[in-house]
């Protein structure tokens, strides 16, 4: 399973997704999440994107100058998406700042073939969205 979400520059939810990818390694799952997220952003005509990952290896693979000819098959279509006419910045984040995407990745998917999209955040994810954006101290009162 993979999952992710797209927020606007203020951190507000735009759309989320998850998809079953079958049995995979952690790096394959992270690359699938990046691939699905980029496709979703492109389909929503997002012209500027900050793609966050908590996996150094995935970040290095997709941001490499050699990504278009990578021996890892999934890196090549990601490189093709990156080369489209849009601005993409890849950044490494702490795993703890990625709880909302992690929740989506572990949620049930209706279809095994296509990504399930969420135009509204699931109710269970709302506190995670705030925590990812502002940190755990924001939730303490």
Automatic annotation (TrEMBL):
<feature type="domain" description="RNase H type-1">
    <location>
        <begin position="2"/>
        <end position="107"/>
    </location>
</feature>
<dbReference type="InterPro" id="IPR053151">
    <property type="entry name" value="RNase_H-like"/>
</dbReference>
<dbReference type="GO" id="GO:0003676">
    <property type="term" value="F:nucleic acid binding"/>
</dbReference>
<dbReference type="InterPro" id="IPR036397">
    <property type="entry name" value="RNaseH_sf"/>
</dbReference>
<protein>
    <recommendedName>
        <fullName>RNase H type-1 domain-containing protein</fullName>
    </recommendedName>
</protein>
<dbReference type="InterPro" id="IPR044730">
    <property type="entry name" value="RNase_H-like_dom_plant"/>
</dbReference>
<dbReference type="InterPro" id="IPR002156">
    <property type="entry name" value="RNaseH_domain"/>
</dbReference>
<dbReference type="InterPro" id="IPR012337">
    <property type="entry name" value="RNaseH-like_sf"/>
</dbReference>
<dbReference type="Pfam" id="PF13456">
    <property type="entry name" value="RVT_3"/>
</dbReference>
<dbReference type="GO" id="GO:0004523">
    <property type="term" value="F:RNA-DNA hybrid ribonuclease activity"/>
</dbReference>
């Amino acid at each position: 399973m993979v999952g992710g979400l797209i927020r606007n520059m203020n951190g507000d939810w735009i759309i989320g997704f998850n998809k079953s990818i079958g049995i995979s390694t952690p790096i394959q799952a992270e690359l699938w999440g990046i691939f699905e997220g980029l496709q979703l952003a492109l389909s929503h005509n997002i012209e500027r994107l900050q793609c966050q990952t908590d996996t150094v290896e995935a970040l290095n693979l997709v941001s490499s100058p050699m990504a278009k000819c990578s021996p890892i098959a999934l890196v090549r279509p990601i490189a093709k998406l990156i080369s489209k006419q849009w601005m993409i910045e890849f950044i490494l984040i702490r795993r703890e700042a990625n709880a909302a995407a992690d929740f989506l990745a572990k949620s049930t998917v209706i279809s095994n073939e296509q990504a399930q999209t969420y135009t509204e955040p699931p109710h269970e994810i709302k506190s995670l969205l705030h925590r990812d954006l502002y940190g755990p101290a924001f939730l303490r009162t």
